[in-house]
Specification:
The chain has 294 residues and is of the alpha/beta class. Helix 2 runs parallel beside helix 3, helix 6 packs across helix 8 and helix 9 packs across helix 10. It folds into 2 domains: 193 residues, P-loop containing nucleotide triphosphate hydrolases (Rossmann fold), CATH 3.40.50; 85 residues, Orthogonal Bundle (Helicase, Ruva Protein, domain 3), CATH 1.10.8. It has 12 helices and 9 strands.
Length: 294
């Protein structure tokens, strides 16, 4: 098997291990092939930008690309959600800090870029559009020069790894409107930009197979769907699920629990109850759950 085909096979195996069903849809397969082609036989210093709606599987795709890039040495994959960072300690989270660099820093701290020590390591920055302003200039230097300065340190450290950033918002639109820096946008996608298609953009055949895959792999145990429920889920994925695959996975996991008490079969009534409880949670009210028959 040619080396590139072996690498592709390995990356696809990672997606299967992550229970990310990715085969059978032309748009998704094109997206994956584009991503893997851009990262094949790299020697570190690759910057890739992924964008797509929430729940489309951007982190899992990033993990697959990382596996491909670090095929020979299996470097570290270091994820960070930029939306969940404490702004007061953001600089230390990214670049580290020496003991005493700020109030409450009682020991040396290694940031995510300090953890990525070699060309086979990958830093994954999710929700990059919510990157704190306090780290933007330093991140720009890391991407451009491969150097960063921990808080309280006197000398810079080198960064030789890869960076994959992801955004659920259109980063180019935010750049044009001035919400995100132009220079940082261009540095983040020097290796290329990949758009991950939403669930409703994928073929009906793919979505049908995805639902079957989920019933076998995502729940407490494998279960079946009433034919009416299968059609209902297909209709929902064709219109719009704000959370895409993540939202579908959540529903299937809940349906699997109902199916356990109904001879292994989930019905439209079960989905109605799930959606009613979700609506009640959104409104801050409580819905009494009907008893389940064993």
């Amino acid at each position: 098997m040619p080396k590139i085909e072996h690498a592709k096979t390995k990356a696809h195996d990672v997606l299967r291990d992550l229970k990310y069903f990715h085969e059978g849809d032309p748009a998704l397969e094109k997206c994956i092939d584009h991503l893997l082609t851009m990262t094949y036989q790299t020697k570190g210093g690759v910057h890739i930008l992924l964008h797509g709606q929430t729940g489309t599987g951007k982190e899992k795709l990033a993990r697959a690309a990382h596996t491909w890039m670090s095929e020979q040495q299996m470097g570290k994959f270091i994820p960070l959600n930029c939306a969940a960072i404490n702004k007061d300690t953001a600089v230390a989270t990214f670049f580290g800090a020496n003991k005493g660099a700020y109030t409450g820093c009682n020991m040396d701290m290694i940031g995510i870029f300090g953890q990525a020590v070699g060309p086979s390591d990958t830093v994954f920055l999710d929700e990059i559009h919510q990157l704190p302003e306090s780290v933007r200039a330093s991140l720009l230097r890391v991407l451009g020069e491969g150097k960063f300065l921990p808080m309280g340190a006197r000398s810079e450290l080198n960064f030789k790894g890869n960076v994959i950033a992801a955004s659920s918002s259109n980063l180019w639109n935010k750049t044009k409107s001035g919400e995100f820096p132009h220079d940082l946008y261009y540095r983040l996608n020097t290796g290329g930009e990949v758009r991950v298609p939403s669930l409703k953009e994928r073929t009906a055949e793919y979505r049908s197979t995805l639902i079957d895959f989920g019933c076998k792999n995502w729940g407490i145990e494998p279960f079946s769907l009433d034919d009416r429920l299968k059609e209902q889920l297909l209709d929902m994925t064709a219109l719009a699920l704000p959370g895409n695959i993540r939202e579908l996975e959540s529903m299937i996991k809940q349906l699997s629990n109902y199916a356990r008490f109904n001879n292994g079969i989930a019905t439209p009534e079960h989905l109605t109850e799930i959606l009613s409880n979700k609506a009640a949670d959104d409104e801050g009210t409580t819905v009494e759950r009907p008893s389940r028959r064993k």
